[in-house]
Amino acid sequence: MIIVLKSHATPAERDGIIQRIEELGLKPHVSEGEERTIIGVVGDDRGIDAGPFEALSGVDRIVPILRPYKLASRDFKPDATRITLGNDVVIGGPKIAVMAGPCAVESREQLLQTARAVKAAGATLLRGGAFKPRTSPYAFQGMAEDGLKLLAEARAETGLPIVTEVMSPGDVELVAKYADVLQVGARNMQNFNLLRECGSAGKPVLIKRGLSATLEELCLAAEYVLAQGNRQVMLCERGIRTFEKATRNTLDLSAVPVLKEWTHLPIVADPSHGTGKRSLVPSMTLASIAAGADALIIEVHPNPERAMSDGPQSLTFDQFTKLMQQARAVAAAVGRTL
Ligand code: PEP
Ligand code: MN
Predict the structure, then answer these.
(1) Which residue's CA is minimally distant from atom 3 of ligand 1?
(2) How far apart are CA 229 and CA 222, in angstroms?
(3) What is the pLDDT at residue 282?
(4) Does the CB atom of residue 186 touch ligand 1 within 6 A?
(5) Cα of 308 from ligand 2 centre, angstroms
(6) Which residues of the chain, if any, have pLDDT below 70?
């Protein structure tokens, strides 16, 4: 349930409510909104009704949350969450963030060249995997910590914050040392120990939708991170597995407005993995902006034909630069900037 406080509730009344929640063995999550404070009551609250809270001073009303996720829901936090990185990158505001870069960090030259090119084209973050979840154990698995060091070097040169994947709970501390945003990949969306560990890492987390996960399951994955006290979570639609073979995955664009209705978290769209084909990335990027995405994640490579992973869906520098120009026009048409 959530407890909505009266608009003039005092700090002492708020503390009294928090104390009562804790006495019942539940956890309070306070959200200070522009107009009033809302306290999410989290934990096993089956069997506890509104009774113990209704009569407390400062309480306006009790709202049961019918969705299985609470902290991620719009009922708990009506205002959109904004995630700030450094001084000037905000994800979830009117400006659409663009995370661009190679699928995998392959070499110093490949990464630095790409970082410079995407920065010049107007990207807001640099992406690149150092730990790669590959379907085949024989495929390139990533440069691990050496790759993270190169990402940090690219950030130092370009000023772009970095988003990179962490695959196992034991690596969270290491990846968090370098990354600005921790990416939980589609194949790990329900790795609950990894999600919990990311929840305690003190860095924003980008969770990609599992290959056959429902949107409710995606929101519950976010709930694992949020329940650890980390409020900086964004969700990513990256295509799901369907019977259709024309594309690598089926980019479920309706997920964007659905998630915007259900949650306050920023929503990212990934037209690269969503289609698997370079020729389809521009149209699905523009469509993602029109659908309301707060951020985009796009794979770019200096020489896609030689890429060690996801070459067929990676854009060249020229293609990315051109796409950014088109994207600006669509963003303006829907009242946003890029
Ligand atoms: C990636 O971003 O390169 C990646 C592996 O994504 P996903 O987990 O969506 O497949
Ligand atoms: Mn990839």
Answers:
(1) 103
(2) 11
(3) 98
(4) yes
(5) 10
(6) 46
Ligand 1, closest atom to CA 310? 3
210 close to ligand 1 (CB < 6 Angstrom)? no
Pocket of ligand 1 contains residue 119 by CB under 6 Å: no
Side chain identity at 127, as an amino acid letter? R
Beta strands 37-42 and 2-5 are antiparallel
pLDDT of residue 159: 97
3-state secondary structure of 298: strand
User: Ligand 1 centroid to 129 CA: how many Å?
Assistant: 9
As a whole number of angstroms, the distance between CA 322 and CA 310 comes to 20
Query: Where exactly are the structural domains of the chain?
Result: 2-63, 83-333
**pLDDT value for 46:** 66
N residues, the chain: 338
Distance, in Å, from the CA atom of 277 to the CA atom of 246, rounded to the nearest integer, reads: 10
Q: Where does 2-63 sit in CATH, by number?
A: 3.30.70.1140
**Predicted pLDDT at 158:** 98
The Å distance, Cα 204 to ligand 1 centre, comes to 17
What tens digit of pLDDT does each residue of 111-156 get? 999 999 999 999 999 999 999 999 999 999 999 999 999 999 999 9
Q: Is 289 in the pocket of ligand 1 (CB under 6 A)?
A: no
Q: Which ligand is nearest to the CA of 163?
A: 1
pTM over 0.70: yes
Please give the distance, rounded to the nearest whole angstrom, from the Cα atom of residue 299 to the centre of ligand 2: 7
The domain 83-333 is placed in CATH, from the list 2.130.10.10, 3.20.20.70, 3.40.50.12780, 3.40.50.2000, at: 3.20.20.70
**Cα first-last separation, the chain:** 37
Dump the DSSP string for 198-251: HHTSSS-EEEEPPTT--HHHHHHHHHHHHTTT---EEEEE--B--S--SSSSB-
